[in-house]
Amino acid sequence: MKHVFLLIVAMAGAGPAFAQDTTEADWIRDPAMGNYKAYAEFKMAHYDAARHVWEVLAGRGNPDALFNLAILAEDGLGEPKDLAKAESLYVAAADAGGFKAQYRLGVLYSGDGPLRNIDKARHFLSLAAQQGDHDAADRLASLAHPDRPPSEFEQAELLSSSGRQAEAAAIYQRLADSGDRRAQTRLAWMYESGQGVERDLDEAGRRFMIAGQAGDAEAQYALAVMFKTGKGRPVDAEQAEQWLQRSAAQKYPPARAALAAQHSDE
């Protein structure tokens, strides 16, 4: 959930202004900007404003927007939880090439929840693995060896997919404390959305910083947005640009899209 860098002034009490300072035509012309605007709203828990932007982009088949709408539906952020709706949106995002949705479906279909379907899990995990998603490749390997217990990280992912967020957070916490940067990033997202832990943007920012400094591209992107918006980190345009560049250098798709959109406006 993320994306791009036009000049945004983050002011205390400013309210849901981020999506209002551009138009639907702007988002359609530059989906990276639209996704970034929506992510900024998401950080402030302005879920209705974020959803509006993502719905506009989802109508154009944008996989990131479809994925993020699925997250809102699955986690019940600003709307009732609706797993069937989330599944439909994840499938649409996956079919549009979204590797995050492909991986999420793989986890949902391979867990113990109501969507369990191992054939579908293998299908979507294979698609994500082909795009270089290492977590998907690990989960796919575990499915090929059902006699081998899943790793602690996989256990946390499966718990999260079945709605047992607090249990997942406890495992991510333990792994993060032992230096696992992926778990650190997952835990940061949980603090950002208030899933399994009490919502705390400052703690999310602290944990994204630890993971970002350890080289996690997803955390680096999140830091770029935080430093740009002043949510979870103080406003610092220079640091925002540095973290964006570091994430893009690792070929993290949202960061690369953000940079491309930024340069097209110069």
From TrEMBL:
Keyword annotations: Signal
Cited InterPro entries: Sel1-like, Sel1_AlgK, TPR-like_helical_dom_sf
Pfam family, one: Sel1
Full protein name: Sel1 repeat family protein
Lineage: Bacteria, Pseudomonadati, Pseudomonadota, Alphaproteobacteria, Hyphomicrobiales
Gene3D superfamilies reported for this sequence: Tetratricopeptide repeat domain (1.25.40.10)
Coiled-coil residue spans: none
Signal peptide coordinates: 1-19
Organism for this UniProt entry: Candidatus Rhodoblastus alkanivorans
